[in-house]
Amino acid sequence: MHNFQSSTCDAHSGLDLSPQGGSRWGAGAILLLGGTAIQIPIIHKAHEMGLRVITCDNRPDNPGHSIGDEYHNVDITDNEAVLQLAERLHVDAVVNYSLEAGIKAAAYAQEALGKPTSPYSSVCTLSDKKLFRQFLREHGFCTPGMITCSSKEEAFSKVESLRFPVVVKPTDLWGSRGVTRVDASPLHQEAQLSAAVDLALSLSRGGEVIIEEFVEPCGPAIEGNAFAIDGVLTTRAWADVYNDPQAANPITPVTFCYPSTQPRHLLDKLDATLNRLLSLLGMRTNAYNVEARIDRNGDIYLMEVAPRNGGNTSHDILSLITGQDVQRAIILAALGEDCSFMRNVSYDTFWMGYVVHTNTPGIYQGMWMDEDFKQNSLVRYTPFMQPGSPAGTYSGTNNTIGALHAQFATREEMMKVATDTTRYFRPIVR
């Protein structure tokens, strides 16, 4: 297995957050939104930094709550409830890590408490596909043609203004949940569009759907995680994205191959486009999960810029690739401490992230792995379910069995695995 040493660069923080030193706030406590398995690593990180971790959500059985120091049953989508809890507990920061559900509440509470955050209004813009697309269009960014609707009747009355294929999705969800590509116009395939709108409406928290023209990328689509300090990108890793055509939702990203094969000048253009967006929104110090497409004209389309680190442990890949301690940076950003140790670095190895899933529903039994792959390429496998749990087909990132990260010496080695994963690893589902 390839060895990896993470650099934390503690000397760059003006605050002694070591277990021995405690913090300048005395006990030092953060309110962490959520307690899923994904939150467990940042709970451990905060403890390493000498901070108490108070977790909250409305799922007391989430595993992170037993790792934290204190738990409160509060809906993390309820801005006022989160703010009131933070005020009552006198915490030093409200932290959202990886969860889309907590993005708005964390920014709302931090802003109301006078603590460091990007503007709540800007976070709301990035968190809503309708507001995001409108902002992009108003400021001259490349955007696909789109409509929004809150009923099937409204969708059918507007959709003929678009060029097919189109993508139908809830305006307020990420992770490919409720997303469907529709290839034929209603004149030829009314049932397909009808089913897509029904699905998106059923999942949307606000009961609104966006239908937009599909942007055909020149080469693979791009996805990645990034970190910005005072609205300027300092650390990022861009990947080529591949889907599983056999999945229940074949447009859901599955495989991420780093670094992207897009030409350097286009990736620089992507960076510049993102920096312009963050500047216009007045964003401060934040982690981001980004989806982008580059068309045949070299135009950059920002499909999503989520003001949070990615889910399914995709955020781990940024730390693994760059050697930067992203979890520490996220905590320090919420505390208003120095994150200047986060910087862009070059790397000469190749990394693959893979969303472990099944296309046949059943009971998850465990993972099979080729021994040579396990010994020489695997860096980390993180299961999201225990053996004996029911596993559904992969229609979105909420149906994920686990996440896998691997490292390779050459792109050829990586692509050999990426294009035929079942020869090297696969979940056992019966």
Q: Can you give a write-up of this model?
A:
With 430 residues, the protein is of the alpha+beta class. 29% of the residues lie in helices and 27% in strands. It contains 12 helices and 19 strands. It has helices at 40-48, 79-89, 103-112, 120-127, 129-138, 152-158, 186-203, 264-281, 314-322, 326-335, 371-376, 411-418, and strands spanning 29-33, 52-57, 70-73, 93-96, 146-149, 166-170, 180-182, 209-213, 221-229, 232-243, 253-258, 286-294, 300-306, 350-356, 362-369, 378-383, 390-391, 402-408, 425-429. The protein has an 8-stranded antiparallel sheet with strand order 13-12-9-10-11-14-18-16, sandwiched between helices. Strands 3-2-1-4 form a 4-stranded parallel sheet. The relative contact order is 0.13. Residues 1-26 have low confidence and may be disordered.
Portion of residues in beta strands equals 25-35%
Catalogue the unreliable spans: 1-26
Which strand order spans the largest sheet, edge to edge or round the barrel?
Answer: 13-12-9-10-11-14-18-16
Q: Main beta sheet: strand number and arrangement?
A: 8 strands, antiparallel
* Protein structure class: alpha+beta
Mean pLDDT: 90
What is the number of strand segments? Answer: 19
Helix content: 25-40%
Task: Give the radius of gyration.
Answer: 21 Å
Broad shape = globular
What's the tally of helices?
A: 12
- Cα(first) to Cα(last) distance is 30 Å
